[in-house]
Amino acid sequence: MKNADRKRTIIWEDPKKSARDAASISGFDYLKSIKDGRIKPPPVAMLVGYRIYEVDNGYAAFELNPAEYHYNPFATVHGGILSTLLDTTMTASVLSTLQKGYSCATVEIKVNFIKPVTAKTEILRCEAKPIHIGKRLVTVEGRLQDKNGELYAHGTSTCSIFKVSTI
Amino acid sequence: MKNADRKRTIIWEDPKKSARDAASISGFDYLKSIKDGRIKPPPVAMLVGYRIYEVDNGYAAFELNPAEYHYNPFATVHGGILSTLLDTTMTASVLSTLQKGYSCATVEIKVNFIKPVTAKTEILRCEAKPIHIGKRLVTVEGRLQDKNGELYAHGTSTCSIFKVSTI
Amino acid sequence: MKNADRKRTIIWEDPKKSARDAASISGFDYLKSIKDGRIKPPPVAMLVGYRIYEVDNGYAAFELNPAEYHYNPFATVHGGILSTLLDTTMTASVLSTLQKGYSCATVEIKVNFIKPVTAKTEILRCEAKPIHIGKRLVTVEGRLQDKNGELYAHGTSTCSIFKVSTI
Amino acid sequence: MKNADRKRTIIWEDPKKSARDAASISGFDYLKSIKDGRIKPPPVAMLVGYRIYEVDNGYAAFELNPAEYHYNPFATVHGGILSTLLDTTMTASVLSTLQKGYSCATVEIKVNFIKPVTAKTEILRCEAKPIHIGKRLVTVEGRLQDKNGELYAHGTSTCSIFKVSTI
Question: pTM value?
Answer without folding.
Answer: 0.97
